[in-house]
């Protein structure tokens, strides 16, 4: 304690005003500025799966920036950090993390700009999952490298080249299981304007590797994938205030998946080519016309491309080696008045999947009314008539209602959308979904206000069980002078695809998803209090608890998370006092171990320094 007191006095003395700092110049061409947040405090940690420790801990979050010769010739930023957590910095890590982020730019503003970036993170916590699905906290390390270069010569096609490499490993709290991933990406981009045509081309090559934890993969599984995609697009202006576009893309990927060390290797390879052409016209201000055509020679791969904008994923469903889709359609829209508009659309399909060929037509009409009825409601609605060529007709409906109204000090808003038997990507299946949201706000005085909100959604294929997903959430907050209170509740269920980046939600798909699909349901509740009784002092406490169930490759797991966090911060000039306590626990039943917990306590001081 005496040593801690001496450190505290030392920091107080350093809090006195200092002389102004200046840039550091090394030689004739290198200039730099540097600053950092230094922290010293007492930290104690205990719990399962972590080594208990306590004592005085020092940390720093730095910022070094500068340039060589001229900022446009070479400029750089380096951000090192050591022993940074949510207690003593803006970091969200539960553990004391260390690492560096750096970026350098060369020839900025010239015809040949380039950049290099690098990051390294050690002992940081992160999330394996994403919002509205079960997510799991892991602790680990990772690094990444990025290189980009461009050629931008006027009158010539542009060229941009990029390369990224990343890797990471982590231990999932509450288990003895790890996640590992590596990925590399190389890409080319080019654009050119020729005779009123805007031309674009691209090429991407991917390599990825992942090791999945047992409770999500059924056994300790590993995944390797590599592939590439190439494509180009063209567009130009047309008469009648029109525009046209043409697009072509070809993708080829190979995926190897092994579930367990003794299991056979599962190999999937697919190639998908897609082309589309379309045009729009506005011959008069109120009238719009459109026409389009598209073709894909592999429906399984096409559905996959709609799940991820880049990277490699195994196809979620197998529609057959010779599956394809051809569509052609057109539409017309008219603005009858400033508030009333209507449109009609016709689409003809020819598709082959599951060994059969289907043809069919969708006809739809939509009406939009923008003027608010009773100074509250606006809406749009439409109907869909479909025929799939096998003697099945269906009538669908979709609608949307928005509401907004202020009644004295009450502010109300909401939205309701509903659709049944609407067009899906496969002609023999139709979608149904609905969503809703509402917001209520009341200002009782200049210092007191209350807000409550809820939202939800549900979607699935109309005639196939097990394809639906659902989410719902409720929040409320109350503010009075220097006190803020909030609470939340959320629930969700559906299917997700296991990838090297975590869980990717699956849209409604026909058939049974492949081996790497995860069925889930989740529930979360929590709340928080934040107070600021005096200037520069803030105290905040939060509590969150979540439960989830996952089913992956016949392995069912009940999972739980609990987080309690309390923080106090006070700032005087450049000195800050930080204190806090955190308790985090996570349990995963399929892991076969007891839930793991971590308890952390911290009290310390910080000061910002301008080194040069």
Describe this structure in words.
The chain is mainly beta and 612 residues long. Helix content is 4%, strand content 69%. The chain has three helices and 30 strands. The protein has helices at residues 2-14, 214-217, 299-305, and strands at residues 24-26, 30-47, 53-68, 74-84, 97-106, 114-128, 136-151, 159-172, 178-194, 197-212, 221-238, 242-259, 266-284, 287-296, 324-335, 340-353, 356-373, 377-387, 393-407, 410-423, 430-443, 448-461, 469-480, 483-499, 502-505, 517-531, 537-552, 555-572, 575-588, 596-610. The protein has a 28-stranded antiparallel beta barrel. The longest helix has 13 residues, at 2-14. The chain is globular, with a radius of gyration of 29 Å. The two termini are 32 Å apart. The model is unreliable at 1-21 and 308-312 (pLDDT under 50).
**Could you say which structural class the secondary elements and strand pairing correspond to?**
mainly beta
Rg, nearest Å: 29 Å
* Number of separate helices: 3
List how many beta strands DSSP finds: 30
Overall geometric form: globular
Q: Helix amount, in percent?
A: under 10%
Major beta sheet summary: 28 strands, antiparallel, barrel
Query: Average pLDDT value?
Result: 80
Strand content: over 45%
